[in-house]
Amino acid sequence: MTEISASADQPARTETRIAPGRYATARRRTARALTWGLNQLDWMVPLAVLALALLWVLHIGPAWIAHVSYWRFALYALAGFGAVRILAEMTETAIDLVDPDRWDGDVAFEATKSISELRADIDMGADPGDVLDSLKDSGLLCEQTDTFRTLAEVYAADGDEDQAQTLYAVVLHLRKADETLGHRQVSDAFKAVETAEAGRP
């Protein structure tokens, strides 16, 4: 059973999560399948509406769409979009309930969604220079590095040296990536931490 802790100034968060391997795998696959289906709605719904509009304009197909008035067709379209919106909301809720990975670190999923939207903007013609400047100035690599380093320290404190070393390797790669971009936020942050640690008695 999952334990929840909360305080007056902090929302409830999960402290522990117990999920048998196969059970968690099944939930994870179900969540991915639901997510895939939800993503298909973005192009299937407009395509379906376009197909119905063609049947209505050409007066072919079933009578309920081929020979209806303009207002009846508009009503069909609104009802269809409403039903799809409700279905999408129900699916998103189901994904949140089913996916075992969303109980902890939900912010990671939101960050991934934002990065995906940024990539979509690039594909649609966003200025690459502006995007690159934003990636540098936002401190994204610095925050990722700090997060992985914190995780590595937690694993090291728990005695899991293998996982800790894996995460430290990720930290070094992110640090190198930041240096390659020429912004050196990660390196500067590391130097500040190392200087502070060196000054401790």
Explain this structure to me?
The protein is mostly helical and 201 residues long. Helix content is 76%, strand content 6%. The protein is built from 8 helices and 2 strands; from the N terminus they run ββαααααααα. The chain has a two-stranded antiparallel ribbon with strand order 1-2. β1 and β2 (10-16) form a beta hairpin. α1 (21-58) runs antiparallel to α3 and α6 packs antiparallel against α7. The longest helix has 38 residues, at 21-58. It is elongated, with a radius of gyration of 25 Å. The relative contact order is 0.06. Mean pLDDT is 77; it is low at 1-20.
Question: Quick recap of the structure?
Answer:
By secondary structure, the protein is mostly helical.
Strand-helix topology:
Elements: E1 3-7, E2 10-16, H1 21-58, H2 63-66, H3 70-98, H4 106-123, H5 128-137, H6 140-157, H7 161-181, H8 185-198
How many extended strands?
Answer: 2
Q: What characterizes the major β-sheet?
A: 2 strands, antiparallel
Strand content: 5-15%
Number of helices in the DSSP assignment: 8
N-to-C SSE string, H for helix and E for strand = EEHHHHHHHH
N-C termini distance: 43 Å
The helix content is over 70%
Molecular shape: elongated
The overall pLDDT average reads 77
Low-confidence stretches: 1-20
- Find the structural class using helix and strand composition: mainly alpha
Please state the oligomeric state of the protein chains shown.
single chain
Rg for CA atoms: 25 Å
User: Reading side by side through the largest sheet, how are the strands ordered?
Assistant: 1-2
